[in-house]
Specification:
275 residues; alpha/beta; D-Maltodextrin-Binding Protein, domain 2; nine-stranded mixed sheet; three-stranded antiparallel sheet; elongated
Length: 275
Amino acid sequence: MNHLSRRDFLTSAAVLGGFVLTGCGNNNNGGDAPEDEPTFEYTLVKEGTLTVASDLDFEPFDFVKDGKNQGLDVDLSNEIAKRLGLKCEYLEPQVFETIIPTIKSGGVADIGVSAFTITDERKQDVDFTDPYFDSGLAIAVKKTLGVVGGEEAIVKMLNAPDIIVAVRPGTTGEDWVLDNIPEATVVQVEAVTDCMAGLSSGQYHAFCSDLPVVANQCNTAFTDCTVCLEIPNGEQYGIVVSKDNPGLTAAINQILADMQDDGTMDDLKAKWFGI
């Protein structure tokens, strides 16, 4: 497997308000790079920096604790920047559904990393890297609600106008609720913690979002809530990149493959999920 050099960049010039970088691998011995070593050209909104857009509200993928950005996605972004020979810089927390339009319009951030599920609809506006995490959805309820039975029985119970379901706008969780329990009353809530707090207080009857995040919330901060239904819909997370920057997508794909081969990806998943 050929590896991207972390710091071997041939040119840097201001173009179209950004910076064009040509990166290639080397043999780590000071000699010329082999002819078959991958080479990528891409632009950056800020020279020497990989600028990342995230909502930073999706523990354990991306969140802020003690004033520090943390999570699997944060570690992943830092590692990608390191292997590209760049500094990783996060924007202030973004509203989730604005991140893809931000990347599409360009000039503000290079990539969006916020547990983005790869979908055909989203791919109309932006490019995605190869997937780096397999996921699914889940529905959480308060334990006292007494939801029991299989998927059919649970969906039937929740599919009623007097059932209030919290979702994060612009997410696949919202799409699933609208498609599968259309009779329920859907409330859009931006923050995961607000969804869970409303569930715990009885303001909402259910909350639908990504399984790893919902399970983490139920197991840590909101132990009076539980996952009543897992939805294995085959979701995969990818990093969002502008369609105008295919070289950056290719460069990150090379790094993701290298991280999988050298065990770094498994180490990150073990750190945040114990698996």
